[in-house]
Specification:
The protein has 471 residues and is an alpha+beta fold. Among the domains are: 153 residues, no CATH class; 105 residues, Immunoglobulin-like (Sandwich), CATH 2.60.40. It contains 16 helices and 16 strands. The strands form 5 sheets. Strands 8, 9, 10, 12 and 14 form a 5-stranded antiparallel sheet that branches. Helix 5 runs antiparallel to helix 7, helix 5 crosses helix 9 and helix 7 packs across helix 9. The longest helix has 26 residues. It is elongated and about 110 Å long. GO terms for molecular function: 4 iron, 4 sulfur cluster binding; metal ion binding. This is Cytochrome c oxidase accessory protein CcoG. InterPro entries: 4Fe4S_Fe-S-bd, 4Fe4S_Fe_S_CS, Cyt_c_oxidase_cbb3_FixG, Electron_Trans/Redox, FixG_C, Helical_ferredxn, Ig-like_fold. Keywords: 4Fe-4S, Electron transport, Iron, Iron-sulfur, Membrane, Metal-binding, Transmembrane, Transmembrane helix, Transport.
């Protein structure tokens, strides 16, 4: 019979640093504490600017129309003095790619600062948290209200909070939909209950989405729904700036009196007040190291700095720093990876600006008639075409149509036309073969449309002329 060695479970507990479960780990509701500081102000001013741009731009006019309007029905996109058409969609694709590379550059440089300062999910979550604080009070009051049984006071506060949330959500939805439907008519129709079914659906959809995402889901969107939080770590290196806790300086943690000789007691600068946890919008403890949940908002930096000031300690126990600096080295901001992203980003921006400046302000599409060819009354071979001409400028313009290097071919029909801003004309034309015989049965023609007021504005399109092999 095999003799068993008796085993005894030994629990090692550090009484000075007891294990705590953060709100994020416990799955509890996250109630953030009020705080102040540099990064809070930076985020506040940045969010205010973004709100002003988002809500204000929709109400700007440019001449007799809305300054920024994506008219999906008319397939025209107005951005101040410029009009874009579906043919310009490649520019939108290029802009999105530039934004992606810009995000990569920022991430390599300073981690998830986009998430903490500019991401709409974060910005609207801060607004909803502010509304919560105004109506239900600060952190401790909200926690007590959550635990309290239902009463008239609790019902009124909760009702007021959700009403304010819905008001912000509705304003957000109206502003967003207002970029696709003229916002003045949209708001008017809403208040007189004449909103069309399509607009009503999208206003309801975005109101609900804003209310759920910023009011209920909050940090869960960042953690479970946003793909950026998943692939960000592969873009970090030892020189990336992140919100980090200086463990070498802060450990061991523990409470102490302000003027005590805490070094003699083996304590670090961290007094274990958990203020960094209480202000965190994702409910994590930054002292546990770099985490997927951290959005680099800097709230814990402001909270910790305020505590350090009160204790008379040096600021920066929690700060933006790199892994290299925490290990005692020096942070290298200019490094090949970052410079590579910067070079590609600058080249792409330059190419985009060039494409934007040189894009043709007139569009020409040529469609050949289904018939191969026909013989006209003069005995000439004739092909029929339909030319679609679009005036992409903001002014009425006159144009002339021609064939480039026409050779034995001659354009028949209207040669000149005048188009209003944004007007589209489908123009039927014919081309005849003036010689008895073409060089081949199928030849390429180059149609060209030129602005008479500005000859530099011109565009060409190709089509095919078909004639009999033997004539």
């Amino acid at each position: 019979m095999t003799e068993r060695i008796p085993a005894k479970i030994v629990e090692t507990i550090d009484r000075r640093n007891p294990v705590r479960v953060t709100p994020a780990q416990a799955g509890d509701a996250i109630h953030t504490r009020s705080f102040s500081g540099f990064f809070r102000n930076l985020r506040l001013y940045g969010a205010g600017l973004l709100f002003l741009l988002f809500f204000g731009t929709a109400w700007l006019n440019w001449g007799d129309r809305q300054a920024v309007l994506w008219d999906l029905g008319g397939r025209k996109f107005y951005i101040f003095g410029a009009t874009f058409w579906p043919q310009d969609f490649i520019l939108l694709s290029a802009l999105l790619i530039i934004c992606a590379f810009g995000l990569f550059f920022i991430t390599v440089l300073a981690g998830r600062v986009w998430c903490g300062y500019s991401c709409p999910q974060s910005v609207w979550t801060w607004v909803f948290m502010w509304a919560e604080k105004v109506i239900e009070g600060d952190r401790n009051q909200r926690i007590k209200l959550d635990a309290a049984p239902w009463s008239v006071n609790k019902l009124l506060r909760r009702s007021a909070k959700h009403t304010l949330w819905l008001a912000v959500s509705l304003a957000t939805a109206l502003a967003f939909v207002g970029y696709f439907t003229p916002i003045r008519e949209l708001v008017r129709d809403l208040f007189i209950f004449e909103l069309d079914l399509s607009s009503a659906f999208w206003v309801f959809f975005f109101t609900t989405a804003t209310y759920l995402n910023a009011g209920w889901l909050r940090e869960k969107v960042c953690l479970h729904m946003c793909p950026y939080s998943r692939f960000q770590s592969v873009m970090f290196d030892e020189n990336t700036l992140n919100v980090s806790y200086d463990a070498a300086r802060g450990e061991g943690r523990g409470a102490r009196k302000k003027d005590a000789d805490y070094k003699a007691e083996g304590l670090g600068d961290c007094i274990d007040c958990t203020m960094c946890v209480q202000v965190c919008p994702t409910g994590i403890d930054i002292r546990d190291g770099l985490q997927l949940d951290c959005i680099s908002c800097g709230a814990c930096i402001d909270a910790c700095d305020s505590v350090m000031d009160k204790m008379g300690y040096q600021r920066g126990l929690v700060r933006y720093t790199s892994e290299q600096a925490l290990a005692g080295g020096k942070t290298h901001l200019l490094r090949p990876r970052l410079l590579g992203y910067a070079a590609v980003l600058l080249m792409m921006i330059g190419a985009f600006v060039w494409a934007l400046e040189t894009r043709p302000l007139v569009s020409l599409d040529v469609t050949k008639d289904r018939g191969l060819f026909r013989e006209n009354s003069q005995g000439q071979i004739e092909n029929i075409y339909t030319l679609k001409v679009i005036n992409k400028t903001q002014e009425p313009s006159s144009y002339v149509l021609s064939l480039v290097d026409s050779g034995p071919f001659e354009l028949q029909g209207t040669r000149e036309l005048r188009l209003e801003p944004g007007e589209i004309v489908d123009l039927p034309l014919s081309v005849v073969l003036t010689s008895e015989r073409a060089a081949s049965s199928s030849e390429t023609l180059h149609f060209e449309v030129t602005n008479l007021n500005d000859p530099d504005i011109r565009v060409s399109a190709k089509s095919t002329f078909v004639s009999p092999i033997n004539r």
